[in-house]
Amino acid sequence: MIVEAAIALCDAEVEIIDVEWDDLGWSSAALGELNPLGQLPTLVLPDGSVMTESAAMLMHLHDAYPQAQLIPTASDPERNTFLRWFVFLVAAVYPTFTYGDVPKRWVGGDAEAGARLEAGTDDHRKDLDAQLEEAAAGPWFLGDRFCAIDLYLWVMRWWRPGPEWFAEHCPKLSAIGERALTLPAVTSVQGRNFPDGDTE
Which end of the chain, N or C, is surrounded by fewer C-beta atoms within 10 Å? Predict the structure, then answer.
């Protein structure tokens, strides 16, 4: 939903093709030829080239639609702060899900080792979220201006350890996620993906 919302904020044309959750991963039939990791989102550009990785897509959208102001410009004094925490999200936080979501995959099927890996990555993620909480300026991550990081926080607060934990331990991040829903494009994307309103 992060990239889908960014596309909506750019007012860019896109065809969305939903993929069944049980067809994601390394053996995905729908995504295998486009993205060997079988991950969403996978973006096929008008020239037929394929982009994977949400951060790459957001940088592409920023270049193509700078008016959306997803990313501070090169001359903006907040650019370096944005880049630091933008990469932190995808390079430090995301891998905790990569290795923690299906932990037995990484430990030769050992269920006990997998449980320890999941617990360890979950605990580490809380530490990383605490760093983001400290860095968040509020009311948006960078302060008075919206940026692409806010889209990540809107979605990621639903993931482990969940919205109640974020509300208690990372109230600024939780509030940023809620604030994103004041943007009609974001509200529309959330409604398309969760038509019954249940984001759990």
Answer: C
